[in-house]
DNA sequence: TTTAGACTTGTCAATATTTGTCGAACTTAA
DNA sequence: TTAAGTTCGACAAATATTGACAAGTCTAAA
C-alpha cells in the first residue's frame, strides 16, 4: 500500500483532514479513507488532483499508484517475480 | 502478447486446430482465437488446462500469462518502467 | 472459379467487478 | 461524557468482462 501511505503522509504534512481532501476530489470521506488504506483504488483523475492539492510532481504519485496496482495483480501468485522480470524486459524491448 | 503467442506456438507444434483446443477448454473457437491474439484474457483455469493439453509446466504458462496482464496494466503509462521497478523491489521486500 | 475448412471480426446478453454513498460504529482527546 | 476524525459494512449504480453467436475473411484444394 505504497500509494495510500504516501497520500496519507502528504495529507498529514499539509495538516488537512480527510474530509477536506475528499471534498476537493469530490468524493466522500469514507472512500478517501479506504483509498488511503488501500482498500479501494484511486482513479487516475484523482491521482492527478491529489498531486495538485499537495503540490507534488504528478509523476511521483502516478508511479506509486501504478506500482500498487501491479502488486495487487501479482500478489499471491507464485510466479510473481518472474512475471515482473519478464514484463520489464518486454517493456524495454517494445520501446524501440 | 507473450502468452497468446506461446499457446499458439504450442498448439501448432501439437498440430491441433483451434477448434480442438477450444473444445477441451469448453469454450468456442472465436474466443480461443481472441485469446491467442491477446484480444481477450484467458482465465486461470484455462491456463492450467492448456498446460495439461500441451504437456508443459503450468508455471511457465502462468508466468507468461501474468506478465501479459502486467504489461496490459502499465502499457501507455509514462512511468511504467519505474512502477515495475518499485513493484519488484517491494515484492522482494515483503517476502520476508 | 467454386467450395470447404480454419480462423477472425463484430456484437450482444449475462455476469461479475468496481465505484461511490450512506448510516452507523469505532477511536481518541478533551 | 462529548465531539471530531476516521473506519466499517451494506447497498445500488456504473463499468468491465465473459462467453456465445452470426457473419466475415483468407487460403488451398478441387
UniProtKB/TrEMBL annotation, chains A, B:
<dbReference type="Pfam" id="PF13560">
    <property type="entry name" value="HTH_31"/>
</dbReference>
<protein>
    <submittedName>
        <fullName>Helix-turn-helix transcriptional regulator</fullName>
    </submittedName>
</protein>
<feature type="domain" description="HTH cro/C1-type">
    <location>
        <begin position="7"/>
        <end position="61"/>
    </location>
</feature>
<dbReference type="InterPro" id="IPR001387">
    <property type="entry name" value="Cro/C1-type_HTH"/>
</dbReference>
<dbReference type="GO" id="GO:0003677">
    <property type="term" value="F:DNA binding"/>
</dbReference>
<dbReference type="InterPro" id="IPR010982">
    <property type="entry name" value="Lambda_DNA-bd_dom_sf"/>
</dbReference>
Amino acid at each position: 500500500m505504497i500509494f495510500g501511505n504516501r497520500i496519507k503522509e502528504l495529507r498529514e504534512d499539509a495538516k488537512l483532514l480527510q474530509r477536506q481532501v475528499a471534498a476537493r476530489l469530490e468524493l466522500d470521506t469514507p472512500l478517501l479513507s479506504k483509498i488511503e488504506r488501500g482498500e479501494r483504488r484511486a482513479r487516475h483523475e484523482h491521482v492527478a488532483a491529489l498531486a495538485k492539492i499537495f503540490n507534488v510532481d504528478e509523476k511521483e504519485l502516478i508511479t506509486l499508484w501504478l506500482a500498487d496496482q501491479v502488486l495487487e495483480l501479482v500478489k499471491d501468485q507464485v510466479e510473481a517475480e518472474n512475471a515482473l522480470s519478464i514484463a520489464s524486459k518486454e517493456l524495454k524491448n517494445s520501446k524501440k
